[in-house]
Amino acid sequence: MTVNERGDLPSGFRGIEVFDEVNAIAEPGRQLQAIRSRAPEFQSWFRAQGTAVAVETCDLVATPFPREYALWRAALSPTPFVRIYNRMMVVRFDDFDGVRRTLLVEPTDSRLAENTPFFRALADRFGPRMRDLAVVWGPTVAEHLARLGIDPAEIDYITFDHLHVQDLRPHLGTTTPQPDLGTAEPLFPNAKLLVMRPEWEQMQRLHPLQRNFFQPETYRDLRTDNVVCLDGDVLLGPGVAIIATPGHTIGNQTLVLNTDSGIWTQSENGVHPESYQPERSRIPGLARWARSSGQEVVINANTPELAALHYNSMVKEKLIADRGGPGGGWMQHFASSELTPWRLAPLVSPSFTYGALRHGSLKEE
Questions:
Q1: What is the rounded CA–CA span in Å between residue 222 and residue 217?
Q2: What span, in angstroms and rounded, lies between the C-alpha atoms of 230 and 219?
Q3: Please, are residues 297 and 308 in contact by the beta-carbon 8 Å criterion?
Q4: Beta carbons of 305 and 250 less than 8 angstroms apart
Q5: Cα 19 to Cα 40: distance, rounded to the nearest angstrom
Q6: Residue 3 resides in a domain
Q7: What is the CATH number of the domain that holds 229?
Q8: Across-strand partners of 91?
Q9: pLDDT at 58 > cutoff 80
Q10: Nearest to 86 by CA among 291, 355, 320
Q11: Rounded to an integer, what distance in angstroms lies between the CA atom of residue 96 and that of residue 49?
């Protein structure tokens, strides 16, 4: 799984140093203090860089997810599951070489994601009939691109906030033909994967606590000449950055966007703005939990890796994003898997959903 040398960046990208010292702090309490100091500086600096060219989101799949993971210990509900909606984001930006680029964020192959041990066990437990009732299938990645008039060969980069559930063989191609796919060729022949180095390297030696949400066997025959490992925060172009937010996984990252509606963060660290502002939530238990615990965020804790760092990363996102939403005052966090209303889980329905994020036009001028 050899990839680029440490420190190498694609031409047209720029490294970001604002959080370098913060990211190097091992003690979680001191790191959190440092985040509170540096995040406003990052926000001001990032806003001054300009805006992305265009952003559009695409619905992929809505699926049940354990409440105790999505809302950790905070929600009071007998309902064991919530429903989350996974969405892809198409981002156009100009890099610092002046080249117009297209980035796909979270282009998950939803059908192959079902082979993840956790979701496979869930399907076996409830059977195909319950699965059909609970899961809402949207168009595939390729179907969305066709609708938008984007040739897969136009895609320059793909990225995921982390590699949970991902089978990347269709995206990157493989060194040998895959019997279950029928090909070794990639859907995106000119695209490179942008991934934090710790996230990529962990796939070679997963801990037992991690394995339930990964598909490491699918990485065996992957091409790696189109993988770019990031060793820190990166500005891809005006209004588009990827920053390290470890905790949900060891190499978790967050997309930061500056748009005509302000600054947004995007990740699965929290499943809804109410996860970042539980004191405002109408979901039973969240506001009271925030008051009694003194905790200001509710982590999406489906893997028990680095909870304190996960908390810190959510505070980082919370301090970077602007405020908006219904009535104003809500953090502009677009969850890559957003908590959505579900008639089978009425007590854990969110106060609102963003549902979509659009900025500019994807049509080339």
A1: 10
A2: 18
A3: no
A4: yes
A5: 11
A6: no
A7: 3.60.15.10
A8: 55, 103
A9: yes
A10: 355
A11: 11
Q: Which residue has the higher pLDDT, 302 or 275?
A: 275
Asked whether residue 6 is assigned to any structural domain, the reply reads no
Give the total number of structural domains in the chain: 1
How far apart CA 150 and CA 152 sit, in angstroms, is: 6
Residue 137 lies in a domain: yes
Residue 163, C-beta contacts closer than 8 angstroms, at least 6 positions apart = 195, 199, 200, 203, 214, 249, 251
Place of tokens 């996974």: 86
CA separation for the pair 304, 102 (Å, rounded): 34
How far out from the chain centre does Cα 225 lie?
A: 23
Alpha carbons 102 and 97: distance in angstroms, whole number? 14
Distance CA 312, CA 229 (A): 23
Q: Let me know if residue 2 belongs to a domain.
A: no
Q: Find, among 156, 150, 164, 60, the residue nearest to 107 by Cα.
A: 60
Tokens of 121: 């066990």
Domain holding 174, by residue range, is 14-360
CA-based R_g, the chain, Å: 19
Q: Is the pLDDT of residue 240 over 60?
A: yes
pLDDT by residue (tens digit) across 250-261?
A: 999 999 999 999
CA neighbours closer than 13 Å in the CB half-sphere of residue 270:
26
Alpha-carbon span 313 to 276, nearest angstrom: 11
Report the distance separating Cα 356 and Cα 88, nearest Å: 10
Q: What is the DSSP letter of 213?
A: G
Task: Give the percent of the chain with pLDDT over 70.
Answer: 98
Tokens read off for 247: 């905790």
Record the tokens describing residue 109, joined without a space.
């192959």
Q: What residues are paired with 262 via a beta bridge?
A: 259
Q: Which helix (H) or strand (E) holds 144?
A: helix 141-148
d(CA 138, CA 126): 21
